[in-house]
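Write out this protein's structure.
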Amino acid sequence: MASPGPHRPDQPDDRMREAVTTKRLHLYSGSSHPALAGEIADRLHISLGEPNLRRFANGEIHCRYDESIRGADVFILQTHSGEEGQSVNDSLMEQLIMVDAAKRASAKRITAVCPYYGYSRQDRKAEGREPITAKLVADMLSAAGAERVVSVDLHSGQIQGFFDVPVDHLTAMPIQVAYLRANTDLANLVVVSPDSGGVKAAKRFANEVGADLAFVNKYRPRGVANEVVAANIIGDVEGRNCLLLDDMIDTASTICAAADLLHEEGAVDVFAMATHGVLSGHAIDRLKASMLTKVVLTNTLPLPPEKQMPNIEVLSVAPIIAQAIESVFADTSVSEIFGGRNQG
């Protein structure tokens, strides 16, 4: 029997072929929303990795991964939330440090998963001598080593153009639409944008559920922060059930002012739906005192006990983020998950 002869460098053996074809997915979570990360890991049938995050006495953050991630596809999930004991800046810096650690550990590809993208409202210069901080955050993520970004319902689609790496812009709309179809009389529903800037998104949503469309004409008093005046309603809402739709609820001033105006215009029932429940300052007190019968949010941001109330319902975005991670890992289309409805 002839000898197989010596191994030639241009003919890889079985171990080399296996190393070339094996792909590894690692998912890590920052400290801002571990519950969401755990739910996503369960849907992916994997275990969350351990980044061993800790803080030094002066507040500086340290990270050291428990296992080798050399040559792996690494997903680092951190929503940019600001809760008691941790600011938006802390959450962002923590993710940057985790991305940098993964890059220096020779990860093959690093994807920053940001369910809520911090500073997203600072996406343009409204007045002179202002920053465009959404662009700055994009630059920092890229400089740290992120080669791809996944986010949900960015405040404006133009933020995707701030990156020099691919951005997968997900939308919570399929989950929100499924909730409405199961819990709402769509025949008498009007989707209402709380301002003219959200009309495009509200129209897309109204078309999806077969509802009518209206919007609130509002203005902000010049020189006064976090205050809004709802002037009038464009559209017919008398005797109708009204869904106030927005990408986020922060101080709740806009939503509550719009709800009051809709009731004055003869709406029967008014409830609100938003992807991101920022709920800053006196937002919960405003919602409790408002005419809204319920508020439907998603879990892109954690909802601590002090912000929970009986008429707030929370939908999970874990299914769509898990699907997106699977698609990125397999190098297949993310937009096909949404039938192209996540564009714009």
